[in-house]
Amino acid sequence: MNILKSRETILGIAILVLLAIIASRFPAFIRPQNLANVFTDTSPLILLALGQMVVILTKCIDLSVAANLALCGMIAALMDGAGVPVPVIVLAVIALGAALGAVNGLLVWTLGIPSIVVTLGTMTIFRGTIFLLTDGAWINAHQMSDAFKALPRTLILGLPIMAWIAIAVIIAFAFLLSRTALGRAFYAVGGNPHAAVYTGISVGRTQFWAFVFAGALAGLTGYLWVARYAVAYVDIAGGFELDVVAACVIGGIAIAGGAGTVAGCVMGALFLGIIKNALPVVGISPFWQMAISGSAILIAIAFNARSNRAPGRIILKQAEHRS
Amino acid sequence: MQADTKKPVLSLRGIVKTFPGVRALDGVQLDLYPGQVTALIGENGAGKSTIVKTLTGIYQPDEGQIFVDGAETRFPTAQAAGQAGVTAIHQETVLFDELTVAENIFIGHAPKGRFGLIDRKAMKARAREILNSIDADLDPGVKLADLGIASKHLVAIARALSIDARVVIMDEPTAALSHKEIAELYELVEKLKAQGKAILFISHKFDEIFRIADRWTVFRDGQFVGEGMMDGTTEADLVRLMVGRSVDQIYPKRPAQIGAPVLTVSGYSHPTEFEDITFTLHQGEILGFYGLVGAGRSEVMQALFGITQPSKGATRIGDDVRVLRSTSQAVDAGIVYVPEDRGRQGVVKGLPIFENVTLPSLSQTSRNGFLKLANEFALARDYTQRLDLRAASLDQDVGLLSGGNQQKVVIAKWLATKPRVIILDEPTKGIDIGSKAAVHDFMSELAAEGLAVIMVSSEIPEVLGMADRVIVMREGRIAAEFAGDQMTPENLVRAAVGIEGATA
Known about the structure:
The complex is a heterodimer. Helix content of chain A is 76%, strand content 1%.
C-alpha cells in the first residue's frame, strides 16, 4: 500500500517538475486558464485510460477502445444527420460502446481467447464497419447541427462540459473501485485469479464487466471527440489505444493486473497530455513528443518492475516477525 | 556384465537438509548397489523427494557426505550429478515436447561433427542403438509430442543410458502408466539391472516394490529408520517401520456432539479423477480424509466445492439434493473450502488483510450496493481475532504475513460467510508449530459449535488426533473407513497403500 502511495507521489512530483521546466521557458503555460485547457484537451485520454485501467486490473487489455470510439463517434454523427436529439445520441453511443465492449468481454469470457487477440480482431472489425457505413466518406462540421457541436464546449463555471464529464467519471470510478463489490472483484481477479475462483468470484464475468465499462466510456468519448473536433471519418483516433495503454502504464497500473489506482491512472494521462500540449509552445519538434512519451513508459515500467521485486524484502520482514 | 554387487556405487551418510521451520532430512543414509533395485519407502513427507533432489544436485545438503565408489564427492549442480552418472526419471518426465526423440536423448551432449555443428546422422544412429538396447521400438526422428507417457519414459531412460548413467532414480515411474506399460517397465528395469545399473525405485505401491526391488530403505519424518533385503521381509514389517511411532503430540480434540447429517454425497464420479465417492457428514463431526498424495482427495473436495463438475452423483445438503455447478453456488449452500495451496488459491497478495477476509462476504458488509469500510473492518476484526491472527494492522498487505497467518486469513474469510460445512485441505501443511496448534484448537471449537468439518490430511498423527472418523482413499476410490478403535496408524497405511485385508 505504501509502495503504491509513494508511486503516485513520485508521479505527482514528476508532473510538477515537468510543469516547472516548461514554465521556465514559457511562463504562460502554467496560467490557470491554460492548465484548464490542457485538462480539457486530455479529457478523452483520461476517460479511455480509466476504462482501460479496469480492463488491465483484471489481467486483460483492450486494444479496440480507439476503434470503438471512432465507430461510436461516426454513428453519433450519422444520427445527428438524421435529426436525432443530442441527449438521445449521447445515451445511444454509451449503450453502443458498452455493447461493443460486451462483445469483447463475451469472447474473452466464454471462449477463453486471450484479450489481446480478441481486441486486435474487434479493433479491425470496428474500423471496417465505419468504412462500410460511410464508404470512407468524411462527415464535416457543416454537416453537423450546432447543438451537436456545442455540447462539449458549453462552459459551466468556466470549464467546458467535456472537462466536467471527465471529472464526474474520475469520481465515479474512484467510487466504483473502492466502494463496490465489483471494484473489489477487479483487484481480486487480477491479483490472484486462482484465489478468486476459490472465493466464489467468476473471473470471466468480472473481466466481462471490465470490458463493458471500457466500451461504454469509449462510446461516450466517441461522441465528445467527433463533436469537439467537428469531423468524423474512418481513421479518427487512429493509434490512440497505444496512448491509452501508455497512460495506464505511466500511471502505475500493473500490466500483470491487480494493482493500480484511479489517481495514478489520471496522473499518467495528464503527464502525457502536458507533454503533448507543451512541446509545441516551447518550440520543440512534435517528433520529440513520441520519444519523450516512450521514455516515460520505459521509466515507469522499470520503476514498477523494481517495486515488484519486493519479495526479497518480504522474506526478511517475516524473519523479523518470527524472531 | 556382472558388476560387484557387494560394494555400493553411491552412498549417502548423515545427510541433513533443513528448510525454514522443517527438518526435511535429518541425518539419513542410503546405499545403492550396482545391479540391484533399492526401494525407498516412506509416507508423504518422509523426505523422499528431498533425497532425490539432493542426489541430482538440485538441493545442497546442509551436512553429510556423498560417496561415489567410496570416494567422497559433492554435487554442486545438476550437471555435476549427471557427470557422476546419477540421473533421475521423474513423475512428470522433464523432456522437450517439440524436439525429436534423438534430440531429447542427446540434448546437452550431442555428438559434434566438423565446425562444432551437431552431427545429426551420428546422433540418430547412436539414439537408435540405445533404444534398441532397451528394446524400445521408437523412431528417433519422431517428435516427442506425438508419443505417449510410457514412450516418453523410454526416452528418458535412453537419455540416462546415453550419458552412461550408473545410478538411475525412478520416482513413482508407474504413476501414469497402464498395466501393460507397467509390465514393460518392469522388463526394462530388469534389463537395466543386468547392465549393472544401480536403481533407486520410489513407489507407494507395495505390490510393485515386492515385485521388483532387491533391497529396501525406509524413511520416516526425514529420518532413516531401517534397511534390508526384500527376501524375508513382509509387508507388515515395512508398514510397522513406516508408521512406527505413537501419536505422542497432544491434540486439542474435544468430545463432539455429533448431530444430524448435513451433507450426503452419493456416487460422486469423475471420468479421470475419482469414482463412486459416497459418504455422509454430520453436524459437529470432524471427518478425516487420509490417503497418499495423488489418491484423489483434493479432487473430490474441489468437485464438492463446485470448481470441477462430477460426471455422476449428487450431493444432499440439508433437504436439498443438487450438484453444485460453481463455487458461488457452493458458498451459498454453505460449503466452503480452504485450499491446500494457500499462496496460489487462498489469499490475494497485494490486497490488505481485511479485503481478503471480506471478499466472499461483501453483500453482508455493503448497503445499497456500496461497501461500508467500517462494517468490513468490524467483520474482519471479529474473525481474525477469533483465530488469533498476528498482524500489525488489518490494512497490511496479506502477502507480508507468514504462511500460518495467511492460513488464518483464509479460514477467517470462510468463517465470516457462516458456513455449514468447512473443508480444510492439508490445513497445517508447511506452517509453524504455533499456528498449527491454533488451527487445531480452532477446528475443535468449530466442531463443538456444530459446524461440520472435513479435514484432508496426509499426516497420520493429525488425522488420528483430530478426526472422529476417517475415510481412506486410494487411486480415486474410497478404500476404507475407520472409526473408534479401528483408527490405528497401521490400518490407515495398509488401506492407503492397498494391502489386502485392510478393510477388516
